[in-house]
Amino acid sequence: MKPAHYVNGVFSTSGAAFPLRSPVDGNQMGVVPEATRETVDEAVNAAGAALAGAWGRTDVGERCALLRRIADGVEARFEEFVDAEVADTGKPRELAATVDIPRAIGNFRAYADLAYGRPERAYPTTVPGWSGSGQALNYTVRRPLGVVAVISPWNLPLLLLTWKVAPALAAGNAVVAKPSEETPSTATLLAEVIDAAGLPPGAFNLVHGHGANAAGEYLTSHPGVDAIAFTGASATGAAIMRNAADHVTPVSFELGGKNPALVFADADLAEAVEGTARSTFTHSGQICLCTERVYVQRPVYEEFVQALAERARAQRDYGPMISAEHRDKVLSYYRLAREEGATVVAGGGVPRFGDERDGGFYVEPTVLTGLPESARTVREEIFGPVCHVAPFDEEDEAVRLANDSPYGLAATVWTTDLSRAHRVAPRVEAGIVWVNCWNLRDLRTPFGGVKASGIGREGGEYSLDFFSEPVNVCVKI
Ligand code: NAD
User: Fold this and answer.
1) Which pTM does this prediction carry?
2) Which PROSITE patterns match (predicted)?
3) Residues with CB under 6 A from ligand 1
């Protein structure tokens, strides 16, 4: 499978090509075409034309039927999608086969159901003293925003791309998507499936390339783009927002995190250790929801640290960092942690496997302790398989520590005290709080972050709200 642009219903590999490297062994797997400004222009224009044509005349029932056909199309090529996601990211096959690709299929089915079942609102209005009946009917319909730019990251490439593309199409928008330059393959397969499903040309377009001063920036600063849905780093979000400001383009942002876990002494400790190991080390920590700060109540602190370190050392069959650059970034934090005075309880280096993976971009699952809250290692997002564990004494202190962060995406609370769970969860400054679990998802629920972790919410009706504009019609009776 060769990564290709898909613009106005046509596949092409125009533009200069850049290499695609395997994170598993560092070898070049292929090349990716870099979209020029002209290609991005063409895609935005094609999207606009689709809205003015057949796509703009579809009703929600037709669009939802198309979404279901896309879901079926991905399912029919399931193994190909899994292979492509594993090749691009190096993630364990099981993860791609149980999370990434099934969730991508689920995204199309969920938004087909949600969009089709969504009622519109009506407000019968009485205005005493008006001429005639003194009555009116207000009803509110939702109109698509228009041409939507979707920019997605490399960590869950197809899952996060479809998480935006599905509701955007369901709501009647035309899409120009740009996946991460690191992971172009499943997006290209998706374009093939969408093409086969019979979407009118231009309703969905795909361009490949880099972000800054390249395809990503051309797209997000394009005057023909009516809205931007972005998932990625907070600094990138800020750069996109600056460009979006020129045209007052609405944005939906899912950004970085430095997610805390609060472990109370009354928690089921085995469960808390297991859950924290999962939330720290899954996909080698390269999920925005992963835990990087753990606060443990003092009576169980030592036991917890040792048990988590044990779990870190026992990690097998884990994937690499996405790129040499990202591996170097994570390792620079391992070094910084030592300079800042951390105790490295487990990991802290580069594993040796004695096979081709030694040429890949692996780092060890790592547990740190002993840093002050002001340490950069405790404040900045690392996006690797690493957490810092610190003790606390009181419930209020735990909440204060959790909230002492520029980020606010997700948090986990481990306790068997029901009242405490309900007391603490709403006080944590985060968009998502899990109690005695992690990453348990219901696609209808709001998903997103506060502070530097994002703007707006995705999921269920929240996505459909972002991707459409309410229009109120008032009819005098
Ligand atoms: P990134 O911000 O470097 O890149 C994301 C996308 O933005 C890529 O497609 C990239 O090409 C594009 N891009 C980069 N600069 C751009 C610019 N100036 N203009 C337009 N587009 C640009 O992020 P990444 O390294 O791919 O992903 C990791 C980051 O994403 C982490 O910070 C992580 O927390 C975050 N993330 C957040 C969520 C969430 O739901 N909140 C989910 C996954 C990842």
Assistant:
1) 0.97
2) ALDEHYDE_DEHYDR_CYS (PS00070), ALDEHYDE_DEHYDR_GLU (PS00687)
3) 151-155, 160, 178, 180-181, 210-212, 216-217, 220, 231-233, 236, 239-240, 254-257, 288, 381, 383, 409, 449, 454
